[in-house]
Fold each of these.
Amino acid sequence: MAYIKFKELTKYFDFKTEIQPQKLPNYVVEYCKSDEKLILGYKNNKDYILFTDRKMYLFDRDVAAIYYKKIHIIPYKSISSGAINFKPGKAELLFSLDSGYQVHINFVNMNHDKKENLKRIYISMFE
């Protein structure tokens, strides 16, 4: 019997705009459990990310195919290590999951206040 690992999460995500959870599309919020606290979301032209108090939800939509989207739900407890990298005007979140997969999320057009919001989310992931 052959076993092949699924390596999709090595993809890079780039997010530009911070968005409050109540302004996210319904298809994003409907994946969350009712007892999860929605913290903050980000979007770019086609993708969304939502941070809750327990999980990270990545919505990867394809621009060419309107009905195509991949939803990655990553519980914080499955993150084995992480790093946050601040650069002028941007920030990066780098994660290694228990499975060995890597997740790299970029945030652009970041001012000081937006970086502080991201820092609070990052700290809460590892509590």
Amino acid sequence: MSLIKSVSIVVAAGLVLVLGYGINDRVFWTRWFSQPPGDTVLTDWAWYKPVDVIADGPSTPLPVADNQSRVISRSALQDAEAYAQSFDSLAFLVVQNGVLQLEHYGAGIDRSSVIDSQSMHKGFLGVVATIALDKGFIPSLDTLVSDYIPEWAEDERQSITVGQLLEMNSGLAQAEFTASPFSPGQRLFFGTDLDTPVQNTPLAFPPGTAFDFNHVNSQAMHAVLTGATGMSYAGFVREYLWQPLGGGYAQVRRDREGGSARIFCCIQLRPMDWVRLGVMLANGGRVGDAQVISEAWVERLMTGSELNPNFGFHVWLGSPYSGTRLVSEPSNRWSPVSAPFLADDVMYVEGRGGQRLYVVPSARLVAYRAGRIDFSWDDAKIVNILLSGLETDVDPALVQ
């Protein structure tokens, strides 16, 4: 058989397979083949359509420290910046008490740059859900998810609660993710129907019995938030978080025109707005005179569960220290933690391969990093460099 004929058969078989999967999935295939490579995925985000724009304006910059308001030692800031640069960071910002102590950008990046967040959207979602709980849109953490996803009401999923989704112990099965475009995980990322896969996800174990970090838990919160508020996800974020925060450009992806937002991954916004979000959390939910989230609910957001004390509402917690943190009990996956954090109240929003927002309320310290996807990025190392550099003889008004 000639080479040309062999290739033709392979191509034809591929077309049959693709067409058999659904000619109406051409949008999926366009997205799947258009996705940028890993080394540009953070900055090459405009390829995806459609999106919901949350806001379309400039970010409000934070004040920059001068010699009198710099409360982290120069040597610590230099060490932290050097560590960030060693990982080809696109942006690395450090804030104490609402004042920028360090602002570093990589080549081609500046304050106006919009960067993809990867799974940092999950932590962002945790904040949004906390606002919905605080404002009473969601009655309580014990509210049944089947109130918003009726397909779950007639089977064993009927007992899953909002709290179990947020704390990742719902028992829902994983959407298997492989390199194949036919894997359920790829459909979750690039497909044109997010609701049906969530509605059809079975239980893998009884709700409330094990921690399992799972994209489906996050995406299921879309039905809860939109059903409870009567608003689109972007609309709720805009009114109850982004406008009080003074946030600049931000957007979320939708599965299709008029469809659902992808809230388990990949919100796009600017570094300055991430640190403004962190400052609000470090300040007990307050921005200026506005209480965006009550202090009690900010504390609950940052409280671990019995099944994983290092995980709050879609955010990771530095304490207690055990040398590892649990990622999935059913699959026995753990991540190493290199050292204890130098503060007991470290919280961080995590994205793939070192995308991070750190918040340390006791020190009013916030740091943001985006850059090369590298799973050797060390959370304890970077946070401890900054905490160890906090000056002890500064004006108390600067650290209160």
Amino acid sequence: MRGATRRLAALGVLLAAAGITFSIESLVPPLLSFAPYVKIGLANCFVLFVIVCFGARDAFFFVLAKNLLTALFAGFFALPFNLAGSLCAYLAMAGLYNAFFPRISLISVSIAGAIVCNIARTGVAAAVMEAPSLFVQLPAVCAVSVAAGIIIGVLTTFSIKHLPERLTKFE
């Protein structure tokens, strides 16, 4: 039971950190003025970390909890954007990680997650605003996504490599 309690406590701390990171990032002006829903998504560092250290099952529940928690900060109007992006990023990252890691790097996994996340968010924006013309933004959105994915992948790789093993091994 001690292991399960330690695991749950660690996930709780990571969830709190993801919520704080999301809150701080929401104070930063949009990266693209024509697509204000596009962000770096630094809280996804925690999602990728949970996929690697805890597994896809725990990461799925982590993503759901993260979105409900951050909806309290950002307002529930942002939930469809955030949930669509997070779930799509989770599916891409967990799938690629489980199928191809270590043949592909965490940076590649993160880039794929970031691209899929922002495509999903663009899709939600197009649906909510009834403006399919928003898909014209996808090349710029994907370029920002690649940069964001690199940042998130590097941060996550650095965290996993340099944190003490007792903080990264929860099996």
Amino acid sequence: MARIPDRQICLDLLGRMCLIRRFEEEAGRQYQRAKAGGFLHLAIGEEATIVGTTSVMRDDDFLIGTYRTHGHALARGTPADEVMAELFGKETGTSGGRGGSMHIFDAERRFMGGYGIVGGNLPLAAGLGLASQYKGEDSVTVCMFGDGASNTGNFGETMNLAALWELPVVFLVENNLYGMGTAIERHSAVTDLSRKAEGYGIEGERIDGMDVLEVRERVGAHLEEVREKGRPSLVEAFTYRYRGHSAADPEVYRDKSEVEEWQQKDPIETFIKACLDDGVLNDDDVESARREADETVEAAVKFADESPEPALESLYEELYVVSETMGWYAVDERSPEPHRGELGEDAPDVAKNLAESGAAHAAEEQERQSREGVRD
């Protein structure tokens, strides 16, 4: 473990990890109660990688993730109320209840979202890095993705372009040993993922993703190097998720003994022990951090429960960016007079009238066939 920082930093690191752990546990519980809909991917066990990384990022740096990003948003400073409300599909959520668990988003804090497509965030990260470069800013984009994404076409294409254009991006692989339910040695010919971008000209480093201080130290070094030299780098954080790939995962692909072995390396408990042994924190500090996390998450559930559902008439809003100079993005042909698909909010009445006409015609046809059947 790296050198233990001062008391305030330790309190902050512990508080954020406890909040993420407690939030994820409650999110799983609310999913079982059918309060949270859609898919749910929990990052319990990966708190050190998330918090260690975000703790050394500047406010003007960009962070982009995949579909396991509740903790990333929380660590970046997004209120737990808004994240929980998004899981509940409520209007007060980070994406107005439209995105759900896989699409948490907070542009104000430069958390540029989670994405449901494996590896789909990689080229977007390159775009963010290009924007910083184009504007002459020294902000860095941190792109976090899973081990499975390192096998996608997007990975190779993005590494090549990032290296070619010397984009300011730190690519961070959260290697939790499984791509969904497939062990890494079965889905990747090269299991040392820190080396997978070498052929594209990007150097990598493997770090202990279960050690928040090592993550903080090494990612911080990569951020500064990228900021100064303007070249991308790759970090592989060796970590583990204690829950299944998603809430619907029966976990038949790994033994319970393996999970129990990794739980002995629990990132929160390991950090607590180090801080207590060093004397930088005491038992009261630990209890206070856990209690605050409990209270914050309980309040978030109450907030989400009491928040309004999105209005039904808003279903077609914000599907497209609409301006007077743009062309048609799509054509809606549900009515006799096709109209612009991006203006879908105008469609319900037209489509409804057409559907009602079709139903009336079907009823008439059925009645006619019935009459003819009687005559026969």
